[in-house]
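Quick review question:
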């Protein structure tokens, strides 16, 4: 089934499914560099029944545990500075840890609208302004357990779909793996089943990125053709060529994630050849322009052939 045609799930009332006693089974990683503040947050979380809390002072300290024992929720405090937004992006891209679908809550500094914007762009599930009350955290955690939005993946964003209902259907929706919900519903997921489900859902992320990378390649080629047809050589053409190189290198990296070696090599080799043209646009003749114009269509056809090879799987109880 095409994910782009799926309707978002109907909201579930947490009271229908939520068993407060299950909070003790939720695994939480807390990143807070101030040990006194961290202890206060840990005490507050435990006071409302959240028992499985592991604290970290730095992202480097947390990194190996994300890989070996993926949590249900990651809470990142802006006491770390803007680094928390990069940590969020790295988790979403599976650069950190094994589960890009982990629920991520950011605790941001007050009176800082830039932090809220950065949190949204990073792919975090939600941001709460400090100081945070225990009730706020519980409400947000249960909301994300039972009414979490589907994800989207673009060239520069992986995370919850936040656009209005009239969004373009060009970007497919991706079903998340939400271990938090499973815990609160008294369900268990064997590690091997979870690993396969995360792998399958991650494949949909990389396909989603390839889709928007395909759109980016077309835009770059269109800009190149327009500049060339208007007789704008030199810097304008070189800029469009370098944007094309960037798009191809991004597509090569994404293709590597889904094990498509042939696509990796093709994108990388094309990028190298176009980089040479960007460095010396005098070699850009009509024949090469026509060949470059064919790249987006060829890439899109290759991408569409990949889609059926990436499985979709949800864990079962």
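Suggested answer, residue by residue:
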């Amino acid at each position: 089934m095409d994910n782009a045609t799926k309707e978002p799930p109907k909201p579930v009332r947490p009271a229908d499914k939520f068993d407060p006693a299950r909070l003790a089974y939720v695994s939480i990683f807390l990143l807070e560099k101030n040990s006194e503040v961290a202890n206060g947050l840990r005490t507050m979380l435990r006071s409302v029944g959240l028992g499985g809390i592991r604290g970290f002072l730095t992202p480097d300290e947390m990194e190996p545990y994300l890989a070996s024992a993926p949590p249900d929720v990651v809470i990142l405090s802006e006491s770390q500075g803007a680094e928390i937004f990069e940590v969020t992006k790295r988790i979403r891209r599976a650069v950190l840890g094994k589960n890009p679908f982990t629920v991520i809550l950011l605790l941001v500094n007050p009176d800082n609208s830039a932090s809220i914007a950065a949190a949204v762009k990073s792919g975090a599930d939600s941001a709460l302004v400090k100081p945070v009350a225990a009730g706020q955290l519980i409400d947000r955690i249960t909301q994300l357990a039972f009414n979490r939005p589907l994800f989207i993946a673009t060239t520069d964003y992986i995370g919850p779909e936040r656009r209005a209902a009239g969004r373009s259907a060009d970007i497919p929706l991706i079903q998340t793996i939400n271990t938090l919900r499973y815990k609160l519903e008294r369900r268990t997921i064997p590690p091997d089943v979870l690993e396969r489900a995360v792998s399958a859902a991650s494949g949909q992320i990389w396909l989603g990125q390839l889709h928007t990378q395909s759109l980016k390649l077309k835009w770059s080629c269109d800009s190149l053709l327009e500049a060339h047809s208007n007789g704008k050589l030199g810097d304008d053409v070189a800029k469009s060529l370098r944007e094309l190189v960037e798009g191809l290198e991004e597509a090569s990296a994404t293709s590597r994630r889904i094990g498509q070696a042939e696509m990796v090599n093709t994108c990388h080799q094309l990028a190298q050849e176009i980089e040479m043209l960007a460095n010396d646009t005098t070699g850009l003749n009509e024949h090469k322009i026509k060949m470059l114009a064919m790249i987006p269509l060829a890439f899109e056809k290759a991408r569409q052939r990949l889609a059926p090879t990436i499985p979709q799987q949800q864990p079962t109880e």
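Why it works: The chain has two domains: 3-188, 201-309. Residues 3-188 form a domain with the Rossmann fold fold (CATH 3.40.50.2300).
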